[in-house]
Write a structure and sequence with these properties.
10 helices; Rossmann fold; 5 strands; alpha/beta
Length: 235
């Protein structure tokens, strides 16, 4: 499993590579700036995920994001922007280009682990216990509830977006959105829901099947949230 780390600052690059290495056995590759990263991908590199600094010479992280997301062979790759900038203009521009997440400097191991969790060995069928999910992510129940709540909001938003894509005949783009949700399910230990989101046949997606699958995923999130709350009440 290849992971690409792009940063012109060698110390920041080494720190992030160390944190990724702590998440499991990955083939971690590095690029010294956006131009270097783009050349490696143009030469055939296909990382499972890319962590990219925002401000770099030659080709910035924002410009690399734009190139990656407009490339049919690379567009589905999760792209995490590494930045200390959180102003609304920067965030809005990145979201408009299709960024998949943010990693804020200084790096926190918990943040990195969250992004790498989908690429860890696949969970056994069915939902993980809440305790197992918390242990795997290194978080407590309160933090897991925040993640679950955020994911439920993302599902609700994605439902309308995917319906609009399907209505416009953009089935391939809808599949990209579903793939991101599938990664979220794996991160949160929702194995059954992840399998449902991967269970669509080849070809054009059926709108009704997609709605049913998203509904099942929302129910799985709510069920897991209740499990966490029961644990908290029992503590």
């Amino acid at each position: 499993m290849k992971v690409l780390v792009v940063d012109d600052d060698v110390v920041s690059r080494m720190v992030l590579m160390h944190l990724i290495d702590a998440c499991g056995k990955f083939d971690i590759l590095e690029a010294e700036d956006g131009e270097d990263a783009w050349q490696q991908m143009a030469d055939g590199l296909r990382p499972a995920i890319c962590f990219c600094d925002l401000r770099m010479p030659r080709l910035s992280g924002m410009d690399l994001l734009a190139r990656v997301k407009s490339d049919s062979a690379l567009g589905a790759m999760p792209f995490v922007l590494v930045t200390s900038a959180n102003d609304s203009a920067t965030v809005g521009q990145a979201e408009g280009l299709g960024v998949d997440g943010y990693l804020v400097k200084p790096f926190q191991g918990e943040q990195v682990k969250t992004y790498m969790a989908p690429f860890a060995p696949a969970p056994t069928p069915g939902a993980e216990t809440a305790q197992a999910t918390m242990q795997r992510l290194g978080i407590n129940g309160e933090r897991l509830l925040v993640y679950l709540g955020g994911f439920q909001a993302q599902l609700t938003s994605a439902s309308g977006d995917i319906a609009a894509l399907l209505a416009g005949g953009q089935s391939s783009q809808a599949r990209v959105r579903l793939e991101r949700l599938h990664a979220g399910c794996l991160t949160l230990g929702l194995g059954e829901a992840a399998a449902i989101l991967r269970g669509f046949p080849e070809g054009t997606l059926d709108d009704e099947q997609v709605r049913d699958a998203l509904g099942e995923t929302v129910r799985a999130v709510m069920h897991q949230s209740e499990a966490v709350k029961r644990l908290q009440r029992a503590a």
